[in-house]
């Protein structure tokens, strides 16, 4: 009797959470799957009582888009390049921050700044830094950003990084710097936390054992941090596949430099673009993205099970 | 390898920036010669600076002043890896991600230049050491798959594999359960005898130190209180602290006075001490120093009797006792001498120690004078210094922040030098030790 009553109470207490989860998580997931399987799904038409053809037509359509392949390519490229770079940099910075006492608070603040800054705002600043307005092969530009100023001061030739007529790899380069820089704070935070949890005696022991700094780093620090590193890499991959706001920040909603819209579009960008016209196709793309992230995360987990040391 | 410590002092700067006087003197003018091939126990209550002393010998902490010699070499400035030491940490500090074998191999893999061994030699050395500490069957396990005692032995193997000149053990047994502790301390003794490596180990457990050390060094608040063979220190404590710290069950402390050539506890005349002047004293009586007699001189009220086989422990009370009870251990056939709840004891003079109430220094009387001199002579004959603390005791831990260092400690050129030492060095020494790259070709060649 008592037990049943308590169970009833437990469900009552869980109710707010369950309702919220049902409305905002379970139903959207279910609805996404439903929409993705209905050809040319339209909300208004659905309300009007229209029926849609059931099948995988949305998926087929999405995959056959050339634009989709561009988005997928951009996404994979950005992820594969930025995750290793930002992880390595974050590890080095975390180790450095952990070993300096002097000014470490100030450096921590500097490195954590991007974490608390709006990414669109950062993107605009990047745009300004890399910009070069006007100026062709023969004409002088109207204004150039600080990066080109520095390049010219060092004797190099200015590069059209992000403006009209800029080429794909210049754009990518700026994006990669932006994404790496933006990804650093969280990774540093996690790794620094991990480092501070490492018992100092391991370092004393390594010192007595005559290990050089470099060997201590590779043989002691990295293995001891491996759970944190795995976490950072996995979340990095997940975040990388969902890259969107950085491109909007730098290039605007056209997802590409002026004159070449969509050239830097990503998976999430593709989904956003499709939502208004064809929610069914957007749902299909979202599920494809989900499948990719799921697969990559599984691979990550499998690898880290072998490489994470304890 | 003989280890000589000269006037070692370690001062940790004040953590509180406002109160510069709050610096902590962890080790205070510590001088000691440790003979080659012996097992030395550094013994003292927590916070007495014994671990700091060990870490200074290891090179992980830099002394504020003073010097350390290994044999004839001054190693004060050498980094740990160049000193030829093996160090076993209190919680072993085994690398959790490496197998036992990788842990043992790690120090060998770090050797450089001409000291570098081939893979086969490394494996051979590791296997040999693993056999010595009897863990060779667990070579492929991770530390987490071993028991505490096995981890301990891996840590010792890792420390020994480089063939150190000095082996340092920091509270090596404190993380083990009671049974393993007994077993492992015998093991440490055996390994030390087999290898003949000068070994220094730190413990707060007097029984542990007494049972396996060749010599013990009793410390309090960074100062050596007494050195010597365990039995000597037990039989002939130089001051109140040492007497109280050694012995299980602990020594009985009573308050009394010398008057007219006799020792009084309360108004009972317990011992004849004709050569002593009248004074107030603390009286320490070892539990085995009592004889239960029908007409004994010291009267105590019996509150309990524990029969321990051959011996009997009589727990009694005396109003002059500084402890709650007076615990005596007497032979079983004396028990008939007790009447009701009153026990009358005679005291064995060589088990009774008198201490000055002011300085807490030992007051020798009767045959103790000769016994004391004999022990000092024996130590000299063995090449060991007899070191005790003289002068006022170091300030107690709780009034550290308020009082200055006792001026008696700062004398001679060394103290003057200490004052001249740049502040920077003290600060640097307090910071967490960082892995330092081993300079090429600076390896100590034996």
Task: Give an overview in words.
The complex is a heterodimer of chains A (310) and B (446). The mean pLDDT of chain A is 87. By secondary structure, chain A is mostly helical. By secondary structure, chain B is an alpha+beta fold. Chain B has two domains: 252 residues, Rossmann fold, CATH 3.40.50.300; 118 residues, OB fold (Dihydrolipoamide Acetyltransferase, E2P) (Beta Barrel), CATH 2.40.50.100. In chain B, the strands form four sheets. A six-stranded mixed beta sheet of chain B has the order 6-7-8-3-9-10, with helices on both faces. In chain B, strands 13-12-11-14-20-21 form a six-stranded antiparallel beta sheet. A five-stranded antiparallel beta sheet of chain B has the order 15-19-16-17-18, with no helix packed on it. The N and C termini of chain B lie close together (11 Å). The C terminus of chain B is likely disordered. The interface between A and B is medium-sized, with 27 and 34 residues.
Task: Based on the model shown, name its key terms.
heterodimer, A: 310 residues, mainly alpha, MetI-like fold, 2 strands, B: 446 residues, alpha+beta, Rossmann fold, OB fold (Dihydrolipoamide Acetyltransferase, E2P), 2 domains, 6-stranded mixed sheet, 6-stranded antiparallel sheet, 11 helices, 21 strands, 26% helix
